[in-house]
């Protein structure tokens, strides 16, 4: 879910929101809600024994023993996805700025100083 959100909406957020800090905060705020929903969905499907599990086999005893590699791997993958998303937001802002400069520099009917 967070990957789809990043691929589809990070660049448009950067293009549409004019201030870079606001654009990044918008991306992170919406992304945090999606991340929470994604994590809850994965845990609930794991508890219901649905499909292939993201967290390994269901524990059969208490206290549950888990493999910390899976936990850190999940966190690392999501951290990389968020970093790429922030990069796409920044790229969108730069593209918007470049477009605005080109359109203002070459506006029809205006004198352009070459120089």
From TrEMBL:
<keyword id="KW-0472">Membrane</keyword>
<feature type="transmembrane region" description="Helical">
    <location>
        <begin position="71"/>
        <end position="92"/>
    </location>
</feature>
<protein>
    <recommendedName>
        <fullName>Integral membrane protein</fullName>
    </recommendedName>
</protein>
<keyword id="KW-1133">Transmembrane helix</keyword>
<keyword id="KW-0812">Transmembrane</keyword>
